[in-house]
Design a protein that fits this description.
Layout lengths: L1 H4 L2 H7 L11 H15 L10 H15 L3 H14 L7
Helix pairs in contact: 4-5
């Protein structure tokens, strides 16, 4: 759990695991997994099957967090186009 000391974001999301019997939602763990692997410096994160989709979503997240909402929307739209599960019927 020392990895949580060096990363405030991970500590915020995974902090409940420090307590015996502590739990987190599965999706929180899934969303934090790549950052956790980086912090622990073990193994290598293998991207999801929909690599292009995942990369575009991460790029959109970065742009959104920078305040570049118009660019982020374009990237998210492209990601949605690539992922058949997000397409509207």
């Amino acid at each position: 759990m020392k990895a949580l000391d060096g990363s405030p974001d991970l500590a915020r999301h995974l902090g409940p695991l420090r307590v015996e019997g502590g739990t987190i939602q599965r999706q929180v763990f899934v969303d934090s997994f790549a950052d956790l692997m980086d912090a622990l410096q073990v193994g290598e994160f293998l991207p999801p099957r929909r690599i292009a989709y995942a990369r575009l979503v991460r790029r959109g997240d970065v742009l959104f967090n920078r305040g570049e909402t118009d660019e982020a929307l374009k990237v998210y739209t492209e990601a949605q186009r690539l992922d058949p599960d997000t397409r509207k019927p």
